[in-house]
Request: fold
Amino acid sequence: MIRILIADDEPMVRAGVRAVLSTDPAISVVAEAGGGREAVELALRHRPDVAVLDIRMPGLGGIEALAEIRRTTPETGVLMLTTFGEDDYILRALGGGAAGFLVKSGEPEELIAGVHAVADGAAYLSPRVAARVVAHLAAGAAGPGADRRSAARARVEALTVRERDVLAFLGGGLSNARIARRLHLAEGTVKAHVSSILARLGVQNRAAAAVVAHEAGIVPATPATSATPATPRRDQP
Reply:
């Protein structure tokens, strides 16, 4: 059972998220918060597997709540809810250790897939969020978007062939266990590859590496997160 904390200052949004998650018998909502401070307190009390946080909340916002949850309950994966036009917030959350991003107007299936992926220790970027992040990075770069994509490809080319294979599946949202099955490797070997990828790309977490994969255009055409999720793990970088 995947235990979930929902935090959003809008009761109707919380109710909608809860209703979607309730359709999956493997998911249990154990707590709800109307703000960031309450979310941090409830995370400490309930130790959920995944916290689903609105990226903008009054008082202690989602970014700040993310930082506190990562500091006080690091075993809890954080999935951020966002709306269009909040690209700067997305990038800040990415740097702060968020494991996934979803658009509030996205399909319900994406929410369930994202929760399973984050609980499984993988990164999850909604396709629409990934496109926005990559576009924002390209627009904010010193050169044009084509130069930014070329730079991402150059970073990926510096990896070994096997690391590029692992990064492609990581960008699609696969956990270490599922990447291992796809590539016929031991899970410990995949974990070592992921650690090396993060170091060589100079990124802090799997979600940031996934952005590089999307930007370089190496993510599989069919999102890997659509597959049946594996058993949740907590030992992945």
